[in-house]
Design a protein that fits this description.
Helices cover 45% and strands 19% of the residues. It is built from 15 helices and eleven strands.
Amino acid sequence: MITRRLLLLAALAALVPATGLRAAEPAQVVIRVGTNRALGTVTPYVGRARGLFQARGITLELVDFQDGSTLMEAFAAGRLDVALQGIAPAAIWHGKGVPLKVVAAANGGGHVLLTREDTKIADVRGLRGKKVGTPKPGTVVDTLFRAHIAKELAKLDPERDLTIVPGLAPADMPAALFIAREVDAVIMWEPFASQAQARFPAARVLFDAAAAWRKEHPTGPLYPVNVVVARQDFIDHRPEDLRRFLSAYEEAIRFINQRPDEANAVIASELKLDPSVIAAARKRIDYASVVDPKAALRTLGWSRQLGYLKELPTEGALFDLRFLPPATGKAKR
């Protein structure tokens, strides 16, 4: 009887640690994240591949959109909790009354103005009278080109001094420039720029936005491009879930920055690209969750100049950075 009782107590004692471990596991929550499978917004895919969200009790529902407008329509309709999107479109939709806040950064830099050798365009001032391919109006790339490169640097009126061919998809820009020769230059972003340079020997860089920004800001992160936005009702009703999401997100960024070779292999697998292209492209971008609101508002000033934004948002109205981990790391430069 005593032996049987001791065996029973031993069995019950053996169950206690296992029960305790199960109780310590975080409850699973579902977070719906909208993004596109691009170099600047690949961090959630990396985090999912590494199991970082699952480890924090998050079932990540990643929804891949082909363009930012469709993404933000879904976000505005309440079908997403979080989205990775360009800072300019995020501010534009915020100005339209969509209840959102920027809660973290995604990436900075990565834009390149390419031309062909035979155009004989020596610098950005040489774009006068030329045709330039750009993406959709209102994007970060579009505003960068029209307001900063054309107006501020080249001293050109983008509406009168050159012909802009808008709405080109980045994958189609190399063909338009180097094969069909429908345009004299294109404003692209990574990894498409590195792909084009590797494929077409006649490619010539007219303006590297990342290099130019680093000259002006040698110690800080690159100019903000993509950011993480959260719906206001998600912030208000699920703040701890947002903290868990951003904790996993920040760990993914640390992995990307601190273990670049391993990270490039994961990114290449997710984007179906060669790791050498990813390595080349990453020389022009950085990954960081830290937001520089002043730099972001400066770039949004370009959208305001062009009339895409009716008014420049205040820092308090657009940003809510309370949910980032306290010791958030910066991009490796």
